[in-house]
Amino acid sequence: MIRQTMQEAIVAGIAEEMRRDADVFIMGLDIGRFGGPLNSCKGLWEEFGATGRVIDTPISEGAIVGAGVGAALAGKRPIVDIMFLEYLPLVIQQLGCDGGAMHYYSAGKARVPLVVRAKYGVGPYHGHPYDFHAWLMQTPGVKIAVPATARDAKGLMKAAIRDDSPVLFMEHMALYHGLRDAIPEEDYVVPLGVAEVKRAGRDVTVIASAAMVRRALAAAQALAKEGIEIEVVDLRSIVPLDEATILDSVRKTGRALVVQETVCFGGSTAEVAALIAERSFRDLKAPVRRLGTAYVPVPFARSLEKAAVPDDAAIVAAARDLVSQ
Amino acid sequence: MTPEPATARRASGDGDTVQADASVLLELYRRMATIRRAEERLSQLFADGAVPGFLHLSIGQEAVPVGVCAALEPADTVASTHRGHGHALAKGMALEGFFAEIMGRASGVCAGRGGSIHVADMSIGMLGANGIVGGGLPLAAGSALAHQVKGRPNVAVAFFGDGAMAEGALHECLNLARLWKLPLVFVCENNGWGEFSPLERQFAAKLAALGAAFAIPYEEVDGIDVEAVAAAAQRRIEPARRGEGPQILECFTQRWRGHYEGDPQKYRDPSNLDAARGQDALAVAAGRLAAQGIGAAQLARLERSIAEHIETAVTAARAAAEPDFETALAGVYAGGRAHG
Questions:
Q1: Which domains are seen in chain B, by residue range?
Q2: From the CA of A189, how many Å to the nearest CA of chain B?
Q3: Which CATH class is domain A196-323?
Q4: Is residue B281 a contact partner of residue B225, using CB atoms and an 8 Å limit?
Q5: ipTM reported for the complex, 2 dp
Q6: Which residues of chain B are within 8 Å of residue A142 when distances are taken between CB atoms?
């Protein structure tokens, strides 16, 4: 085991795949000589730059993601770093409409093994916070990976690179340089579409991803002192959605709280809540509860930003309320 | 259409023009006539309700895909547009799979899933028609990047219409291609109409000047003259293939039909339409063939054989099963379903 941050683990995962498969390459804005914002690609230029496999691109998000699709169609396995998820709207056409649909439209003859990396999240950097992943939930054909830990991040990245479908890989900035995680030294992948119970509990299921997993775990510690045991399900990928793990947990606890750092309206909290309502309604002891970002553009002032996003206390209060019903 | 690659690529001694002899020109004529007749047949089928969706026909523009693709190798790649039937057929798509696809049959080249607007076949280097104006440009750039990094002697062609000149994708891709010296040939099919509006109301510049801004070699050609297109395409493709970077070929052509099939074109002055239909790539080629001793009778025989082939394809498509919906739920992801 080695201890690494999420940033270090993701870069290590990319480097391992680049060593393993000569068709893997990475391109993006300022990812080469500069190393990427927040060191997102630190060290890749030094190891692979001379062989042309780390490509600095102009600020042309649509063109580089489209070029990623085109290169993938031709047998390469590109990773395109668009810096921030806030830029997803600029590449919905290429990633969603083109890349996402080609395998289907070609009756399986075209494969698009493409990974698009994007940082996001309310956190220490107070910029580019937007989590727009729900936009891609409406374009069948794209997978969405959303790690909460460094270990998962590395394994999911390696799975994403090896996947023959396009994958949006989300990197939460509040998790990037924070806690170190024990990372296996051997080769491993975390398959896309497999959620993980990060803490077992009998009273309430909290379904979360990324930074909200950390908050749910903190809330679980606080609630344990009151005798309330919450089970924390980390989705790890939004698409494919691990319906079985969600439903198994809800059947056990009878109570569900869905937490995301996105607006609830039309997003993945709605999808998970609908899944539970449709498939596990009779197991419920209380209505499904959701917590998400306030339905406003992410505000600037620190006080507003903090208030807009669910915190540990909000999760504690919602779980406590569910148990009281 | 069965491609017979390189027949039109025989250069003359000076390498400047293709001195197409009669057999080469006859083959180009056959390919153009196949596209023309296939689209005319599609127009009838559409009117009969046998095509379950929109059609954007390229009748009048056949010399461009045929001329350009005649200068391509099988492993070269092309990204197409919403007006993409000609590109698919000229790159080598068989009529059977083509008609079945446009008619939404299980036997279609994309199993009826793509239709006119997404018809694609990776095995012939046809990266797909695309419903979004300019959408194929970055895909072609990526394909060219793959050719380059794999060290393959291949080029990618991005077909686009004049309507795409106002799209950011073109400007981004011109820059990207020049920065990276991609083996990419930008082929503009300038028919003067971007959907329902003339070019002069849509684009303030000229493609030649845009190319000059990026120092990308530019050439324009009469897109009605298939021999001229083939020669110009070869002049643009060969430097790209040699690693000299991207090239632009602007083909001035004519759109005989509406933006979509059924479009009454009320926005278009009848004299404009008459002038367009007065420029006929097939008639130009037929005139040259006659001068080389291939007369109307021989062309009529060729047309009959094309018509028979098309009818065989249409009959087979009509008889083919429609795709099964349960089957059609599969294949969204490589390797299986996501969820649900």
A1: 8-319 (3.40.50.970)
A2: 17
A3: alpha beta
A4: yes
A5: 0.86
A6: none
